[in-house]
Amino acid sequence: MAIATDPIQNWAAQAQAEAEAKQKKDQTLGIDSFLTLMTAQLKNQDPLKPLEGTEFISQLAQFGTVSGVQGMQTSLETLAASLRSTQTLNGSTMIGRDILASADSFEHTQGGTVSGQVDVPAGTTSLQLRITDSAGTVVREIQLETAEGTQNFTWDGLRSDGTQAESDTYDIEAVANVRGQSGSLEVLMAGRVSSVSLDASGNNLSLNTPTLGSISMADVRRVQ
Fold this sequence. Notes:
The protein is α+β, with helices and mostly antiparallel strands. 33% of the residues lie in helices and 34% in strands. The strands form 3 sheets. A 5-stranded antiparallel beta sheet has the order 6-3-9-1-13, with no helix packed on it. Strands 2, 4, 5, 7 and 8 form a 5-stranded antiparallel beta sheet that branches. The longest helix is centred in the N-terminal third of the chain and has 40 residues, at 53-92. The radius of gyration is 31 Å and the shape is elongated.
């Protein structure tokens, strides 16, 4: 699975790196050491030549900026962890739900059935659902209604000769003629969510289904 980049952590890390580089470049001291040195200088300054306060104020402002960035990074990391936890919790509510997602293949278990939908455009004069096995052999063709709108379908798992199709990966295609033009329409396949998972970055939530495999939450078209 591709590993995505966490924009929140990257931004915070970049901000901290820039602050630390600036601090090193300016050769500033740690805040505790700086305050100790400032106190010592004030105690031992020449009364006739008092130290300028503007330089101390400038240095303290720099320390405040660095401390602020570090505190911001901690807050952002906490926020990112919270968002990931929330995303996982929200995804867990999908377990046991039936979803519809765009698909051109599916896993079939012998004796089982599969179902889905096709959105039929106006002007459709013919619509046929074609199911093909992993060897490229057409095992079943199902005629669907051509009326404009959503058309539901179910494959009972039987071949054209009435025998049961073996457990295998099958391709599915909706072949249509729309206003005299032949082509394929998008097929939405139904799948029941058995579990959810996050990728390595913790950003992308996937819904795992026995029929459609792993589906990105962003690719879910409908929840039934």
